[in-house]
């Protein structure tokens, strides 16, 4: 395995007495695509800002490309590309100017920046928008421009904080495709998300974070194998009966050794054979309004680990 | 990789806060950004600011001046009223230009545009950002001042060859106000607080020996005004354009030098506290 480019050990960030990040440890290898998956307030952005050398840690160790961000902030930042959670594009500048000016912040020569700007506009599928105002771009275009901007210094590591939150499915797929290409070219990606499908698509490995600590670590498939069953049966009984029927099912299925989660709107039954469970339920005389058998996802892993859903 | 960096790491961790984490030597990139932004959005607003002091000069100097007659300077020299207020307005022109960019524009960039957050996630340091923004504001002040001094020349209000030195003097004044303006703005959280800046600027403009000598005030008020930055600018520039030059002018220079340094240090610290916490 190549040498790690990010090493975090017992990383802590406190705001007054509150620990936003409470002892996180992980390593990211060069070329790897690593994810932080967690609900709102888990400490994902705080971790990203520390890795991005724009926030100092309270305690613990952190090494980015072998350097300590407390001492070598500018050197580290010159090797990073940063896509923050909310876009901070320069709205006083046009689309292409955003790239040119940002490249100059890194002290790169004008000609090189101009050439890269054109390549990146093509990469981000923003040709024809060079002179457009940033405010006039759609959310997906802004996000792609932010990613293009983050690549202007040809970074070794790309930090993406919720790259696709707030985008429609089509815009998300376009973005995933672009990120996939970067991954293929060998760029190290560190990304946060609270979408499990995104984590499954993009991450080689990930950590599930909650309340500033790591709940589990592994590849998406490993995590599902370790913390969930192969299939899940989802049944709905309508909001009036859900809790009551759910409790009954929990007793019955629990006796069979299956885990049951009763959510406000539906009941989840974890089993390697969902269809068989559905047959059992109907034989017991229960009539679900809807039923669905699906494969386990990281959402289920999260539910299992924290007792809460990932997206409220 | 690790071998070399461990060695790097040891000596620099002894030095508490290396300068290079504050300054990448690239304030120019910040200035270029400001230049582009101004050029593409609001250069008309910038140019319009050129006329404000000229209007004052015409209205007060030429209009009111016919009633006032001549003013006697501290060295006994008599000068016409327009020649008396013109240097003060020159200092005001430098101040205004510097203040526009370093207060309201900086406030907007800090609170709403997240511009500095973006800049500081590159290899730029907080001193690059502070210096770049302040130099840009200085340039605006310099533009107004140079425009105004040309008008003074045309109207025959530069009374001495010393007036040539008024140009570096207004640069100094603009630098001082830009630096202090950005430092103060970096603490501002709301529009109401920003209005306090106007609340201070207007009386300072009116009462800093701009339109009549300080001697009309009671002693204690003179001390208050002499503590304010504009009075030092007015005295410095007036000394130069009227030829009333003495070593005392250097105190005013020193006042601005301190203002520049303090402003830069405070702004840099503030940017680091806000965006590199
Ligand atoms: N500057 C700050 N001062 C005080 N508390 C903060 C600050 N920044 C973050 N926090 C707190 O730290 C916790 C973690 O915040 P963080 O932004 O890292 O969460 P997140 O995982 O990125 O959440 P989200 O999915 O909503 O973006 C939150 O409870 C937040 O309120
Ligand atoms: Mg976040």
UniProtKB/TrEMBL annotation, chain A:
User: Transport as a keyword?
Assistant: yes
**One GO biological process term:** response to antibiotic
| Record key words, sorted | Antibiotic resistance, ATP-binding, Cell membrane, Membrane, Nucleotide-binding, Translocase, Transport
Annotated GO molecular function terms are: ATP binding; ATP hydrolysis activity
Cellular compartments annotated: Cell membrane
**This protein's GO CC annotations:** plasma membrane
What Gene3D superfamilies does UniProt report for this protein, alphabetically?
Answer: P-loop containing nucleotide triphosphate hydrolases (3.40.50.300)
What is this protein called in UniProt?
Answer: ATP-binding cassette domain-containing protein
Organism per entry: Orlajensenia leifsoniae
Q: What is the lineage of its organism?
A: Bacteria, Bacillati, Actinomycetota, Actinomycetes, Micrococcales
